[in-house]
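Thread: "does anyone have the structure for this chain?"

Original post by V.I.:
We have the sequence but no experimental structure in hand. Need at least a predicted one for the grant figures.
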Amino acid sequence: MLRILATTDIHMHLLPWDYYADRPSNIRGLSLIAGLIEAARAEVPHSILLDNGDFLQGSPIGDFIAEVAHLDPDALHPMIAAMNHLGYDAACVGNHEFGHGLEFLERALSRAAFPVLSANILLSRGETPAYDKTLRPATALITREIDLPGQPSRTLRIGLIGLTPSQVINWERVVLGDQLQARTVFESAAHYAVQLRHQGADLVIALAHSGLGDSLSPLDHENSVMRLAKDLKFDAILAGHVHNTFPGSDFEAGTGLDPVRGLVFGTPTVMPGFNGSHLGVIDLHLRAKGASGWEVCGAQVALRPVFRRSAAGRMLAAVREDKEVRAIAMPAHRKTRRWARRKIGETSCALHSYFALVSSSPSVQLVAMAQRAHVEQALHGSVWEGMPVLATAAPFRTGGRGGPDNYTFVAKGPISLRNAADLYSFPNTTIGLLLTGTDLKEWLERAAAQFNTIVAGSQGLEVINPDMPGFDFDLIHGLSYEFDLSSPPRYSPLGRLIDPHARRVERIFHDGAPLDPTARFVLATNSYRVGGGGGYDMARASKIILHGGQAIRSILASYIATKGIPPMDPQPVWRFSAMKDTSVTFLSAPAAAEFCAEVTSGGVSPAEMTDKGFQRFHLTL
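Reply from O.Q.:
Generated one for you, C-alpha cells below.
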C-alpha cells in the first residue's frame, strides 16, 4: 500500500494563530498538521507527502515577509524551512504564489529541498505542450521500494504533475506583466499524464490547484478537477483552491461524485480544507503487475482535522504542535504581530461582516469607498475625468467552511494594519473598467447567485447558497437596488449562465433615477475579477481603462490614515424585495446577536445554535 498525505491552501498559516484577531486559534496551522503527518506516517511502511499550492501568501505573516521584511536573497523562507523539515516530497505552485511577483517567488523556492511543480504556467509557449518552456518543472518521478512476500522488493514509480489555474497570469498581471504565458490545466495534464506513463510511471497523481467544478465546466475553467477525472486517467487527484473539504458534507452526491468515499468519476480525490485545517489521506492498495509493474486494486480517502470540538462547543487542537515548525516560525511571527498592531486610524462604530450576506454592510462599504476615491483621483486629467465612478466590493470572511470564527470584526476605537488586512485579505490591485448600465445590471445578476430561491409565504427556508463563497458576492457601491428572492437565479454559484430568462435584480437606481442601460460608468474593481475570478464575464480586459499598480489593502490603509472613517450612507446599498408573510434563516457568529438592530432591510432575531458553533438567525422579508 502507498499512503498519499496531502495539504493544500495553507496560506502561510505556520502556527495556530489568527492574525486578524491577534489571538491563538486551534483550527489551523502547519505546526499542528505536522503532528498528524507524523502519526499517519507511523501507521504504514510507505508514504509520500505532497502540497497542492497556495502556501506562501494569504496571511499577514506572509505579507510581512514579502512586503516589509523583503526576504534576503540568501535567506530561507520560513514556510520552505518548515516544509523541508517535514520532508515534503513535492509541491504544486498555487495562484497566490505569484501575488508578490516572480522575483520573490523564485527567491523563496530556491532553497526548497523538494520539487515545486507547474506544468501549465510557462516562460514561453510552443506549438504543443511538448515544446513549452515551463516556469517550474512540469512533473516529477519519485520512487519507493515495496516489499513483496517471498520475493525481492520491487520499485514503485510515482509520477506527479503540478497544475495551476491558467487565469493567474491575468489575475496577477499587475505584478507579472507579460513575463508568463499559460495553457489550460486540462491540456497540459493530458500531455504530461501520457508522458509520465511512457517514462515508466506506475502511478500518475495530479496535484491540481483547482476546485472540483462540474463535469460541464469548460476546459479552461479554474475549477476543473471533475473534467480531469472524467476525461483523463489519474490514479489519484489532490484538489484545492476553493477552500472546501472532500470527502465530506461540503458536496452532494451526483453524477461522477461520491463525497462519502472520496471518488470523482472513480478517481480517489482529496481536498484538505484551507489554512492548515486538515491533512488529506489517500491509501492506494497495490498489487504486482507483470515482471516489474504495479496496479491499483483499491483505495480509501479520508480527512484528518487538526481540531476537535469539546462537549461545551469549544474548538480544541486535536494534536500537539511540532516544536521545530514552531521554532522556525517564531522570529517572523513576533515581528509580524508588532507590525500588524501599528495604528492607522479610528472608527466610531464596529465594522464587521456578520450580516454582509443579508444586508448592506459598512465593512464592505468602506472598502468600496476607498477604491472609488482612488480611481477618481487616478482619472484626474484623463479623458475619463468627470465620468461617474462606482466600485465593487465583496465580504471576504463570512463564516462558511471557515467556521463561526471566520468573520471580519473591527471593534470601535483604534484601527491597526491588522484590521485593514481583516477588511481586505488578498493582495489584489484596483482596475478601472468602462461599463454600461446593462453591464452593471448583469454584474449584479451574477452576484445574486448567492441566494437560494424563496417561496412567497414560506417560513424558515435557508437564504444563503453555501456553494457560493462570500468573496464572490460582489456589490456595486454608488447604486441602490433590490434582490427579488422569489425569482430563480440567472447564474450558477460558479458564474455559469443557467437561465437566460431569469432576473432577480430590480429597482436599480443611480443618483435617485432609474439606471439608464446605455449610460457609461467607470467601475473600480479588482485584478482577480478581471482575470476571470468568480465568473464575472462582464469584467473583460477589453473594458479596462485604468491599470492599478497598488494593492487594494494598501489603498484602504492609506484612505483610513488620511481621511479616517467617513460617515456611512444611511441608505442601504441593497436590500431584499419585500415578500409578504415570508421569513428566511441564515447562519452567523454568536457574537452577531449584539448587532441585529443594524440590519435595516428586515427584522433579524437570533434562534438556536448549531452543532458547528454557528448561531442561526431569522430574517423577515
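V.I.: this helps a lot. The two ends are 56 Å apart (CA to CA).
O.Q.: and Residues 343-453+468-572 form a domain with the 5'-nucleotidase;  domain 2 fold (CATH 3.90.780.10).
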